[in-house]
Write a structure and sequence with these properties.
Oligomer: single chain
Number of helices: 6
Largest sheet: 2 strands, parallel
CATH superfamily: Winged helix-like DNA-binding domain superfamily/Winged helix DNA-binding domain
Number of strands: 2
Number of domains: 1
Helix content: 40-55%
Strand content: under 5%
Order of helices and strands: HEHHEHHH
Strand order of the largest sheet: 1-2
Radius of gyration: 16 Å
CATH class: Mainly Alpha
Length: about 120
DNA sequence: GTCTTGACTAAGC
DNA sequence: GGCTTAGCCAAGA
């Protein structure tokens, strides 16, 4: 047997891995490309995440709109259809924009830290 | 095999 | 606040 071990070299595997990671983002939360890449085990391949989402077929249940650029900024131009769609979908989940961007300290996907910092009493 | 592009990020002006 | 530069990684020409 060829003992050649390759860590998710197949683009299909990588895409699935990225999509699966994006699906893990809970509703009402958002994550950055770099964060998704890191969680997916791709390191700094934030661009790879963007490509995977671009290749994402329509009708998919992957919440691509929960993925933002660094700083909570949208990846699309403000006059783009995707921008409005993303903004609307996030709004339905309770995520609204402040000065054209999302407050990552509040809506950012912080699996553990968030519950520690965000007290329900606030 | 080299160059360009891109749903990226961070730092600098 | 916005624009530029540099770094990064993968796909396409």
């Amino acid at each position: 047997m060829s003992g050649r071990k390759k860590p998710a070299t197949d683009p299909v595997e990588i895409n699935r891995l990225i999509w699966r990671t994006v699906e893990r983002i809970p509703a009402g939360r958002v994550a950055t490309y770099g964060q998704v890449a890191d969680i997916a085990g791709l390191g700094r391949a934030a661009r790879r995440v963007g490509r995977a989402l671009r290749e994402l077929p329509p009708g998919s249940r992957v919440p691509w709109y929960r993925v933002l650029r660094a700083g909570g900024v949208f990846a699309f131009p403000r006059s783009s259809e995707s921008y409005r769609r993303q903004r609307r979908l996030l709004g339905e989940e309770g995520v609204h924009l402040v000065n054209g961007r999302v407050d990552l300290q509040r809506y950012g996907w912080q699996q553990t830290l968030d519950e520690l910092l965000w007290s329900p009493d606030a």
